[in-house]
Amino acid sequence: MGKEITINGYQLEICSNSPQSALFAAQGGATRIEFCQNLENGGITPSYGQIVQARELIDIGIHVLIRPRGGDFVYSDLEFDEMMADVQFCKEAGCDGVVIGVMKSDATVDIERTKALVDAARPMHVAFHRAFDKCADPLSSLAILIELGIDRLLTSGLQNKAVDGVELLKELVKYAEGKIVIMPGAGVDSNNIEMILKTTGATAIHSSAKETVFSQMSYDRSEVEGMNEPIYRTSKEKVHQLVDILKKQ
Fold first, then answer.
1. Where are the strands (E) in the chain, listed by range?
2. Quick check: keyword Cytoplasm in the entry (predicted)?
3. What is the average per-residue pLDDT within 184-196?
């Protein structure tokens, strides 16, 4: 299990998409990581090998994204079974938490499946991710998450970027009354992190702190399309920048 740390009273979660990115996040000073792969398409559950390697490399919290595919958050029975199996593996692998999000077609929280995932995950920490930002009614959805015992909510305030959702984020923090941690995320960087925290009153923040990595191939067969697109990786320097700002708050 990873150690619990804060930065001047704040938690800085970095979304990392590989063991290398997780290592950079830890070296940069992050307090924990949300661990996924395929960040280019919104992130899905990382592989067995990635989870095991990341756990060996870093001693801060690892909270694994439980998402079997991209797209929406309405899952088939087989997909849900996969999610349950992934939760069980994360527990066995010594992860600190999981990050889930299951919705119904009417944009309400899937209470039955969320409860099943929470029960399966304990005693690990359980967060609900930005599936929340597709909900029909944010306050009633938040009330459900509190009732289900979710520990933390990652949300952009129902906007593409957290900086545009600060008023709702502020309302959610007030409504939560400390019963659940409201963690702003999406588009958070060194230019807006201070404003988001001060406006919302949040004490946890989420950022990808990513950089673009271009193909290292010295030869490209141009008639074959794709397979050498740029990828994302956590930037140690960008994490450092966020940490430095938090230390001054």
1. 11-16, 32-35, 61-65, 97-100, 125-128, 152-155, 181-184, 204-207, 210-213, 231-234
2. yes
3. 98
The predicted pLDDT at position 220 comes to 85
For residue 235, pLDDT beyond 90? yes
Confidence band, pLDDT 50/70/90 cuts, at residue 66: very high
Q: What is the pLDDT of residues 180-189, one digit of tens each?
A: 999 999 999 9
Rounded alpha-carbon distances, angstroms, from residue 40 to 15, 91, 155, 208, 211: 12, 26, 19, 11, 12
Query: What CA–CA distances, in Å, run from 5 to 60, 85, 96, 109?
Result: 8, 29, 13, 31
Tell whether the model's pLDDT for residue 123 goes beyond 90. yes
Q: DSSP of 15-39, one letter per residue?
A: EE-SHHHHHHHHHHT-SEEEE-B-G
Q: Which amino acid is at 191?
A: N
Distance, CA of 67 to CA of 82 (rounded, Å): 9
- State both tokens at 175: 């409504």
In DSSP terms, 60 is beta-bridged to 3
